[in-house]
Description:
- The chain is of the alpha/beta class and 288 residues long.
- The chain folds into three domains: 6-44, no CATH class; 48-127, no CATH class; 152-287, Rossmann fold, CATH 3.40.50.
- The protein is built from ten helices and nine strands.
- The protein has helices at residues 30-44, 65-74, 82-95, 102-111, 114-127, 129-148, 181-189, 205-218, 234-245, 276-279, and strands spanning 47-53, 56-62, 154-156, 160-164, 193-196, 225-231, 253-259, 269-272, 285-287.
- The protein has a five-stranded mixed beta sheet with strand order 5-4-6-7-8. Strands 1-2 form a two-stranded antiparallel sheet.
- Strand 6 (225-231), helix 9 (234-245) and strand 7 (253-259) form a beta-alpha-beta unit.
- Helix 2 packs parallel to helix 5 (114-127), helix 4 packs across helix 5 and helix 8 (205-218) packs across helix 9 (234-245).
- The longest helix has 20 residues, at 129-148.
Amino acid sequence: xxxxxxxxxxxxxxxxxxxxxxxxxxxxxxxxxxxxxxxxxxxxxxxxxxxxxxxxxxxxxxxxxxxxxxxxxxxxxxxxxxxxxxxxxxxxxxxxxxxxxxxxxxxxxxxxxxxxxxxxxxxxxxxxxxxxxxxxxxxxxxxxxxxxxxxxxxxxxxxxxxxxxxxxxxxxxxxxxxxxxxxxxxxxxxxxxxxxxxxxxxxxxxxxxxxxxxxxxxxxxxxxxxxxxxxxxxxxxxxxxxxxxxxxxxxxxxxxxxxxxxxxxxxxxxxxxxxxxxxxxxxxxxxx
Length: 288
């Protein structure tokens, strides 16, 4: 059975039918309850932990005790497990300040845990001087925009335009923000031109990546630098599109902002910049 059109299924499909195939074994009213229970179980999974990576506080759950210790103790300088501390020290010493590649992340996941590998990579990124400079510039711009935008005092450079790539099921979950309508409206109010990429909302990453690549290529001669905005599933689609196009066809791309946890309206984001030159040519927020 295909899951592609799950929103069109009859609720009775969730339950096994009787021998006469006429009466479902169960109450359709249980379906919302089952979904609520699933969400509650997901929220309770893992070990609770609070810590800091790159001066950003993280309050979450992780998949293992080693990941919990790493975030709450090791990174905070509260080291109380000599054997584990030595293993983690060796990871940093072997890396010599370099970011882990895919094979190294796989090895870290096997040796420690998946969440440990993710936290380790986040910490290594946060230690990079270029990321620290970006974070400082971002915080200054964010603080200014937060104060000035409600008053209509934010104006963004018209030398840039934004390519907006919606996320999974955006045609059906628009009420949850999957179509990125709110940030689009805010960017347009601040003076930027936004171009919406109409991807297939339930298609594979590879299919939508081709649509994104075509949209990026189509704006190459616009005379403006491009900022790409994506969220959740559209992040891998943009990544694959940029990879396929390569440096030659992405010279006009100044920046890519991949925000996450869209359905919960998270204010956090992952910001990926192609190189130092493009980082410092990203749009500047300035008062009128």
